[in-house]
Amino acid sequence: MRIENITSAQNPKIKTLLELQEKSKARRKEGLFVVEGRRELLHCIEAGYVPHTVFFCPEIISENDKAEIVQAIKKQNAEGNEKMPMAIEVPQQLYDKVAYRGGTEGVVAEMYCKDLDLESLKLKENPLIVVLESVEKPGNLGAVLRSADASGVDAVIVCDPLTDMYNPNLIRSSIGAIFTVPVATAKSDEAIAWLKDKGAKIYTAQLQNSEWYYDTDMKGATAIVMGTEATGLTDAWRNAADAHIKIPMLGRLDSLNVSVSAAILMYEAVRQRNS
Predict the structure, then answer these.
(1) Cα pseudo-dihedral 65, 178, 161, 246, rounded to 10
(2) Which of 88, 120, 131, 165 is the residue whose CA sits 20 to 30 A from 11?
(3) What is the largest distance, in Å, between two alpha-carbon atoms of the chain?
(4) Can you tell me the distance from the alpha carbon of 151 to that of 144, in angstroms, rounded to the nearest whole number?
(5) Which residues of the chain register pLDDT less than 50?
(6) pLDDT attached to residue 103
(7) Tell me, what's the pLDDT at 253?
(8) Are strands 32-36 and 107-112 parallel, antiparallel or unpaired?
(9) Cα separation of 242 and 234, whole Å?
(10) Per residue in 16-75, pLDDT tens?
């Protein structure tokens, strides 16, 4: 890896890095996004994402962590990636200005974006799929992805997304699960047709005209569909559903956070499949 030293916040490479962190328009234009931290970066590389530029802070990152990252990049390069990234070293004073959050172990990287289309998903027999329609908050989506990783979900489909899939808040809240769980984006009608073609049962989470979630058979190919807390699901999903399912609400409130609801339903599918 070619190494360059930068000390000025006015350097064009630093300005580009900051723009990629702050503006979804810049991410779309450049086809790049930003990852911070050793764990997230290694997950990202393992998932096949290719680094464009890696920024190291020698005063923070350990030699072992740096060597591990460099080795992962070299391995990826040896397996056919022809885009060897540039490595840039920055002093801590500058690193503190470009780091999106504290405690990121002294490494920030610009990565090439991927096309997150439905056809990129490779499903096993009887897959468990989570579908999120029009989820707006990156933190909620990140939390769902963490639960999806933990419960072994085969894919997460985000329909009509209202948040940038490479938003730094999403990556941070998912602690890298955005890279460990297969993810696709699509319009709702496209996702419905795709799921029907795959033979998946569509179960929509909603309170009206619903059965208890634990009475629903999730052992076969299953798609659990969640909407927003404010407006729920659109009629397209309600009409396409094989069943509507609900979670008992025993207090005075009528809904859970979407990430909490999703986790309950994912683990019910896990329970059924392991019983």
Answers:
(1) -140
(2) 165
(3) 62
(4) 10
(5) none
(6) 59
(7) 84
(8) antiparallel
(9) 15
(10) 999 999 999 999 999 999 999 999 999 999 999 999 999 999 999 999 999 999 999 988
pLDDT for 62 equals 93
Give the span between the Cα atoms of 243 and 211, in whole angstroms.
Answer: 8
What are the structural domains, with CATH classification, of the chain?
Answer: 2-112 (3.30.1330.30), 118-274 (3.40.1280.10)
Q: For the packed helices 138-151 and 258-274, what is the interaxial angle rounded to 10 degrees?
A: 10
Which pLDDT score is estimated for 129? 98
Q: Cβ-count burial of 259 within 10 angstroms (0-12 exposed, 13-18 middle, 19+ buried)? A: buried
Three-point CA angle 74, 185, 44, nearest 5°: 20
| Cα separation, 252 vs 248, whole angstroms | 11
Token pair recorded at residue 111? 């990565």
Asked if 69 and 54 count as a contact pair (C-beta separation under 8 A), the reply is yes
Task: Check: pTM over 0.70? Answer yes or no.
Answer: yes
pLDDT reported for residue 102: 61
Sequence letter at residue 39:
R
